[in-house]
Amino acid sequence: MTSSVTVHIVDDEASIRQSMSFLVSSAGYAVRVHDSAEAFLASHPYPPGHCLITDLRMPRMDGVALLKQLSESGTMLPSIVVTGHGDVAMAVNAMKVGASDFIEKPFAAAVLLDALKNLASRARDARENDREQELILDRLSSLSARERQVFNGVVAGKANKTIAHEQDLSPRTVEVYRANVMAKLHAKSLPELVRMALSAGLLGDGDTSA
After folding, report:
1. How many distinct structural domains can be found in the chain?
2. DSSP string spanning 162-188?
3. Distance (Å, whole) CA 40 – CA 53
4. Whether 24 contacts 9, CB under 8 Å
5. Is 208 helix (H, G, I), strand (E, B) or coil?
6. Are 191 and 200 in contact (CB under 8 A)?
7. Are 117 and 138 in a shared domain?
8. Do 103 and 135 reside in the same domain of the chain?
């Protein structure tokens, strides 16, 4: 199986670059690896059909700063950011400046390849967002006031305990509302929930707890 998509992998750790490169190339994608954000930017811009997987935490220029620079220069690529556990708010910031998805470490190979499949189709053909936004807004309108408060907290990267304290609820009650939100919005994961909020225009600057 071959693909017209070229995947750029940016990570400062050689072992991770090597393992991700092997995994991605085994799935039929052309791969280029870069040991820093600066190295990636040095050979930019790239034509349509290229996409990016970048680590969030890197020395000198981190993943958010990299995406911000691409966005500001008008050369944003469809991008996945790879983040450590507990960096949800930072990953949300990355999505706000243009990342398409984020994956939390440690992740299974299938998780990365599924995310990459979505990324590759975005790299190939750009737009079908209006209908998706309409559907999300329709689903959001089905949330109760409490569910909407919990939704807002979750996509801002807040922990259940923080949301519970702010809304004067028990953490268990927040868990129930959170499950209701995921079901009503047909979201299978936290990154999908964040994408919905971004698509609906509900995350502006300063909306995360980072």
Report:
1. 2
2. HHHHHHT--HHHHHHHHHHHHHHTT--
3. 11
4. yes
5. coil
6. no
7. no
8. no
pTM for the predicted model, two decimal places:
0.65
Residue 204 lies in a domain: no
80: three-class secondary structure by DSSP? strand
179, 80, 74: which is closest to 123 by C-alpha? 80
Q: Are 55 and 90 in contact (CB under 8 A)?
A: no
Task: Provide the pLDDT for residue 34.
Answer: 96
205 in any annotated domain: no
126: confidence class by pLDDT, cuts 50, 70, 90? very low
Q: Which of 48-52, 62-66, 155-159, 169-173 has the lowest mean pLDDT?
A: 48-52
pLDDT tens column, 181-202: 999 999 999 999 998 898 887 8
Q: Count how many residues are written for the chain.
A: 210
Domain annotation covers residue 1: no
pLDDT at 210 over 50: no
Q: Which residues make beta-bridge pairs with 8? A: 32, 52
For the purposes of burial, counting CB atoms within 10 Å of the CB of 88, is it exposed (0-12), middle (13-18) or buried (19 or more)? Answer: buried
Q: Which of 92, 124, 156 is the last residue of a domain?
A: 124
Residues 6 or more apart whose CB falls under 8 angstroms from that of 37 comprise 10, 54, 58, 60, 61, 62, 63, 65, 66, 69
CATH number at residue 43: 3.40.50.2300
Q: What is the per-residue DSSP string for 2-14?
A: --S-EEEEE-S-H
